[in-house]
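re: ur question from earlier - yeah i can do the single chain one, its not a big deal. heres the input i used so u can compare w yours
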Amino acid sequence: MENYIFGIRPLMEALREGKKPERVFIQKGLTGGTFQELFKLIRDEGINYQMVPQEKLNRITRKNHQGVIAQVAVIEYHTLEQVLPSIYDQGETPLLVILDRITDVRNLGAIARSAEVAGAHAIVIGEKSSAPVNADAIKTSAGALARIPVCKEKDLLESITFLSQSGIKVVACTEKSGTTIYDADLTGPVAILMGSEDKGITPLLLKMASEKAAIPQKGKTGSLNVSVATGIVLFEALRQRGFYS
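and the output i got, formated as tokens:
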């Protein structure tokens, strides 16, 4: 339970020390002056929170949680501004993965595992639109989430704009494209944009992408699991970059 903070006052102290949790679970109907003070801090900091029944909190812990449980990060996050220069300093061509609305921790972990194995330089996630990087995600990633930089960005639209202005081509993986990933040029600086299985890529992000590419499908199943699809695109990039030659 090392990645949780239990109770109103412990969380208030953590926030005042500059510690920002991934998300906060708040018991429905919670009242009181101290709680209202905490709730204002949560909203002022733009922290993701969810109102839940007491039973859910009790399933997380048997400790006295006072109606509030915060999930804190178990890794150190990076920023794109930090990561990009270091890639070029190493003399390498950037290969990034942008995840839009991937909310399942197992998918996040599996994607990180493929990304790290394929030599991707970083994973980019949204502050409010992503599964938390917690112990389950790290376990599913086989530890990869502790080895590959994760950039947690406030606005993925601004991130894509920044990448485009930095000479990074953003390739959106979508079945709505007539171009396949095998036709797309993935040899240069590239960020692969992946969306959720049920909702796909946010339309505005899709519009901002440099180009779109699809994974060819022969069967009748609607779509691939997002972690499998990400792996396919990453290893096609690896092939195009001459890793196997």
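The mean pLDDT is 93. not sure if urs matches, ping me
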